[in-house]
Amino acid sequence: MKILLLGKNGQVGWELQRALSVLGEVVALDRHPVATAYGSLAGDLSDLAGLRETIRSVGPDVIVNAAAYTAVDKAESERDLARTVNALACQVMAEEAVRLGAWLVHYSTDYVFDGSGTTPWKETDTVAPVNYYGTTKLEGERMIEASGCKHLIFRTSWVYAARGNNFAKTMLRLAKDRPSLNVIADQIGAPTGAELLADVAVAALQQAVVKPGLGGIYHLAPMGETSWHAYAKFVIDFARAHGELLAVEAVNPIATTEYPTPASRPLNSRLNTEKLRDSFSLHLPDWQRGVTRMLMEALNK
Length: 301
Ligand code: NDP
Prior knowledge:
By secondary structure, the chain is an alpha/beta fold. It has helices at 11-20, 48-58, 79-100, 132-147, 167-177, 194-210, 228-241, 274-280, 287-298, and strands at 2-6, 25-29, 34-36, 39-41, 62-65, 103-109, 150-156, 159-160, 180-184, 188-189, 192-193, 216-219, 226-227, 250-254. The protein is globular, with a radius of gyration of 19 Å.
C-alpha cells in the first residue's frame, strides 16, 4: 500500500509518520519542497494546483491529511487562507482520490457543532459552527462526502501531543512562575492524544480497505470528560506529586465570558464515540491515561 501523508510535522502528522509506517510505503510531506522517489514534491495546501500535481506524481492508494489551518482565533481574520487550507484543499484531495480509487483519511473537529446542551454529540446531530474555523472544517467534510471518494473522517477535540506545545505544557510553564492561574471551567470535552488519533486511524483504515462500507464520519476522543480547569488541575497535581517545584497556589475557575477571544468556542465539546467503537470493535481509554503518558514524557519521569 502506498500512502501519501500531508502535514507530517503537526501533532497528529508526527504520530502518523510512526503509525502508518507498518502499512506500507509512506511519502510524508509538509508544505516545503523535498526530494522524494517521485521527484521534488511539496504538500502545501494553500497551493491547490501544486497539491493536485503532488498527488498525481505519487499516485497513492491512501491520502492521509493531517494538515490544517488550526489557528482558531486567527482564522476569523485570515479567512481566505483558512478556507483554502481547510476546505478547498480537501476538495482537491477528494477529487484526486476519486480519480485514483484511493482512500482519503481526514481529521475534523467538534467545532462543527454549536456547543449547546450537555449531551455528547453524535455523527448524525445537526451541525452549526460558532466560529469560522469550524465553518471551514465543516465545508471540508462536505466536499469530501460530496465527491463520493472512499473516506474516513475523524472528528476530534482538544488535541495534545508530547511533541510541540499544548495546553498541558503551557499550564506547567505558567505554574512554575505564577502564584495563581485563571482557567476556563465551563467548556467541557476530552483531551485527545495525537498518538490515539494516529493509532485509531491506522486500525480503522486496515479494516476499511477490506470492507469499504465502513467509510464515513466518526467521532474519536478518549472516554470521560473534563473542563479546561479540571484538566489544568490534573496536570499541576500530577507534576507536583512527581517532584516538580511549582509556584502556583490557586487555580481559579473562570467562565468563558470572562476570557473573550476573537473566535467563539463551543461550551459542549463532548463527542459520542459509540459508532467508532462498534464499527471497528475498538476500545478507547480514559483521557487521563494518555495525558499521564504525555506528562511522564514532558517531565522526563
Ligand atoms: P497542528 O496545528 O499541530 O498541525 C497542523 C499542521 O498543518 C502543521 O504541521 C502545519 O504546518 C500544517 N499546515 C498548516 N497550513 C498548511 C499548508 N498551507 N500546507 C501544508 N501544511 C499546512 O494540528 P493538529 O495535529 O492538532 O491537528 C490535526 C487535525 O486535527 C486537523 O485537521 C485539525 O483541524 C484537527 N483538530 C485539531 C484540534 C486541536 O486541538 N489541535 C481539535 C480538533 C480537531 P506548519 O507547522 O508548517 O504551519
